[in-house]
Design goal:
CATH topology of the largest domain: FAD/NAD(P)-binding domain
Helix content: 25-40%
Shape: globular
Distance between the termini: 61 Å
CATH architecture of the largest domain: 3-Layer(bba) Sandwich
Radius of gyration: 24 Å
CATH class of the largest domain: Alpha Beta
Number of helices: 12
Structural class: alpha/beta
Number of strands: 27
Strand content: 25-35%
Length: 451
């Protein structure tokens, strides 16, 4: 299939690279009314509801609850072809997307929505292996196994000194993902695993949240940040702001704070401190910002190529405000969806010969972060609130925006059961028992609960 456009009739061919929030919204907005043919290219076969990915990583939800096959979601759009493939490059002059297997997919209009990946600030080679981030289902499965196996390893060991690194959990980065992860880990240790181990006390696990800036949830109002930190500490999370991570290896984390350097022994480290734009942005050979994002104009086009749009986390876009000023569009899912919709509306207008939409304007619906059971913070327009009602609001919003009725129903049932029982049943791991590293086998396997 060297030229998908010629195989699909004479309608304009729109290629969408990536089916996250921006790509999916673009495909749906383009519609199935005979105006265009669409090809979606994604390295995965599913669309992922990333805001709840940490719930899979912490055994609260199973993967099908937050992910759905792209083909199934768009099955009624007969003009859509889905290719599960890796994009190797884009030939702007020939109007082709180049696949890793050598195929070339021709386009009339291109929407690049390939998203972002983890950023370790130049230390990927040293840190990525020991501090996994959370962007894909594979990341979530890996992290879930790492968390659950840490308790299993601690149960096998005999000495407190050997157990302690397995019962230390370090989360680096106190944005929404880091805060949600830290709070959930604390609940797992203190409630979910209660009474399930005989030689260790899971509630003695220590969850440490490290943040380089002066406060958690830096994007929220200071009052909400303070309330979030109080709620975290109420769950038993040790929060340390102004802490700079300078080293990560298999056995722990090195931190500098207030001019002092400290070693934190920990076998489970979670990275939630930074993201970088997809490498595909560099392939476009256009100006990038410091984060590697593609600088686009008010139509979300790249310079000199009105047929190419960049949306979502890969785009460094500006929102044209009502007063004529411009503001950066934040890297959040509502922004990606709005950009995908705007790009699709612009394409439809151009093909139909209608006036194009006004330059892109981002509508900010606010920000939410959950800290744990019955605890959250919400910053919605003129309203800022926290606690139980913020948690209910967070729950409603996330269930509402889940893809598919079945997903909403399953998640609601899982959360209702977890609310009353603290149970998390997605805790099966594929790993088998391995000798704990740097520790001798226990001499006494009888009951013990000293730690």
């Amino acid at each position: 299939m060297s030229d998908a456009g010629s195989d699909r009739g004479k309608r304009p061919h729109v290629v969408i690279v990536g089916c996250g929030f921006g790509g999916l919204e673009a495909a749906r907005t383009l519609g199935d009314d005979g105006l265009v043919d669409i090809t979606i290219i994604d390295r995965s076969n599913h669309h992922l509801f990333q805001p709840l990915l940490y719930q899979v990583a912490t055994a609260g939800l199973s993967a099908p609850s937050i992910a759905a096959p792209i083909r199934h979601m768009l099955r009624r759009q007969r003009n859509v072809t889905v290719l599960m493939a890796e994009v190797a490059g884009i030939d702007k002059q020939r109007g082709q997307v180049l696949l890793a297997d050598g195929q070339q997919i021709a386009y009339d209009h291109l929407i690049v929505a390939s998203g972002a990946t983890h950023s370790y600030f130049g230390r990927e080679a040293d840190w990525a292996e020991h501090a996994p981030g959370l962007k894909t289902l594979a990341d979530a499965f890996k992290l879930r196994a790492k968390v659950l196996m840490a308790f299993e390893q601690a149960e096998v060991l005999d000495e407190e000194g050997a157990r302690r690194p397995w019962l230390n959990f370090v989360v680096i980065g106190a944005g929404p993902t880091g805060v949600e992860m830290a709070g959930t880990l604390a609940e797992i240790a203190r409630h979910t695993l209660k009474n399930e181990f005989r030689r260790i006390d899971p509630s003695r696990a220590q969850v440490l949240l490290l943040e380089g800036s002066p406060r958690v949830l830096q994007a929220f109002q200071p009052e909400l940040s303070a309330k979030a930190q109080t709620q975290l500490e109420g769950l038993g999370v040790a929060v340390r702001t102004g802490a700079r991570v300078v080293g990560i290896d298999a056995e722990g984390v090195d931190v500098e704070q207030d001019g002092r350097r400290e070693r934190i022994p920990a076998r489970t480290v979670v990275w939630a401190a930074g993201v970088a734009a997809s490498p595909l942005g560099r392939n476009l050979e256009v100006p990038l910002d410091r984060a590697g994002r593609v600088i686009v104009d008010g139509r979300l086009n790249i310079p000199g190529h009105p047929e190419i749009f960049v949306v979502g986390d890969l785009a460094a876009a500006q929102s044209l405000e009502r007063d004529g000023s411009s503001k950066p569009v934040p890297g959040v899912s509502p922004g990606a969806k709005q950009m995908g919709r705007h790009a699709a509306q612009t394409i439809r207008a151009r093909i139909a010969g209608r006036p194009e939409p006004a330059p892109f304007r981002y509508i900010d619906y606010g920000a939410l972060a959950t800290i744990g059971r019955k605890a959250a913070v919400a910053d919605v327009g003129r309203f800022q609130f926290s606690g139980y009602f913020a948690w209910l609001f967070w729950l409603f919003v996330h269930v509402y925006f889940l893809i598919g009725f079945r997903n909403r129903l399953v998640v609601l049932m899982d959360w209702a059961w977890a609310y009353w029982s603290f149970a998390r049943y997605a805790r099966v791991v594929a790993e088998t028992a391995q000798p704990p590293e740097s520790a001798a086998a226990p001499q006494n396997m009888g009951p013990e609960r000293k730690s």
